Amino acid sequence: MKENENEAKMDGAAAFYAEKQKILADLINEEEKEILRRNLEQAEKEAREAKYIAYIALCMEENQKPMSHESRVELVSKSMAAAILMVSAIEVAFSTHMIDKTAEKLRNSLDLSSCTEEELKKMMESNQSLQESAAKRVMDMYKTPEKQADYIRDIRKLYKNMMEADDHSPEFKAMKNSVGRLASTKLTDAANPDYADRLIRDSFNMIRGINNFVQGRKRVLYSNAGKEQFDNAMDALSIATGYIPGVRAAAGRLVKSINHARGAENPMHKDHVNLNKFGAERAFKANQKRMSMQKNKVLEHKPELPTMR
Description:
Elements: H1 2-26, H2 30-63, H3 69-86, H4 96-109, H5 117-123, H6 127-141, H7 148-160, H8 170-183, H9 187-190, H10 196-214, H11 224-243, H12 248-262, H13 280-301
Helix pairs in contact: 2-3, 3-4, 3-5, 3-6, 4-10, 7-8, 7-11, 7-13, 8-10, 10-11, 11-13
């Protein structure tokens, strides 16, 4: 009997606290919850921005010290990465690792090593100057001054003949997608001055995709698929250098680093990379060869039909 009374008391207490929790929860209605959620997001955003601002401030202090050109390039690229990540549409938590990875991409795709000491110091004047310098660098480097329609025709030809993207290489998939975005440009839009910003942005993203893919793949690749994917990256780079003067110096340095990693600086070396040997036409011929080999392979394995008697 006593046990039943205790159980009843416990059930009653549980019901009381459950009702109490419900009452407390109802004290904050849906509208107030939304306000609290927005306030929390704003607080998190401000805390994230404060970390980026503090990071950039330390870099600016460091910028006052004498250092080698390469060290200053690294400092500017990290500061620029932090300034861009801070205002990125894709809000990410503050991370020095993320800053370092982004800085590496900016250093290559914006060719910051070619900037003078004075230019680098000027970029470091403020968060705004870092962001504006990055945007100006993209606009200056990646504009296609003439033959925009020919540029898009070559990109289209390349895209149609590129290797299939697979799950084993997300970097190649991303690079191919960036080529595809350029290939989707209408020929009438390509030469339209009002469309220039879009063409510049898409060209920049393609070069960035090439850099991301090539990093870690400079040495000779041994799988056929890997070689073909690498060759497609060089095809895209070759087309870009043919139409975009601003990327030629950076492309030359990238190719030089590839040949150095391969021990193939000598133009006669079998693994030497020469951009003049790449492009839309090479991609077309390589794809024709792959298709022919695939067709022959299918025919070789095709079962013979039984003879009629």
